[in-house]
Design a protein that fits this description.
The protein starts with a helix and ends in a 30-residue tail after the last helix. With 51 residues, it is an all-alpha fold. The longest helix has 20 residues, at 2-21. It has one helix at residues 2-21. The protein is 39% helix and 0% strand. It is rod-shaped, with a radius of gyration of 27 Å.
């Protein structure tokens, strides 16, 4: 009986640890590739800079 209680406590603590740590939530706006740069997506040879 003592071994069963110890096993249940160990399983409960392991499950609680996994539940509390979980996955990290990443803020999408902090990722540098979330928006295209000024030079991306335009027509080739038709750059926005004039000389």
């Amino acid at each position: 009986m003592k071994k069963l209680i110890s096993l249940l406590i160990a399983v409960s603590l392991t499950g609680l640890t996994l539940l509390l740590t979980g996955c990290e939530d990443v803020d999408e706006s902090t990722i540098p590739w979330s928006r295209p740069k000024d030079w991306e997506g335009g027509v080739p040879g038709m750059g926005g800079t004039s000389r």
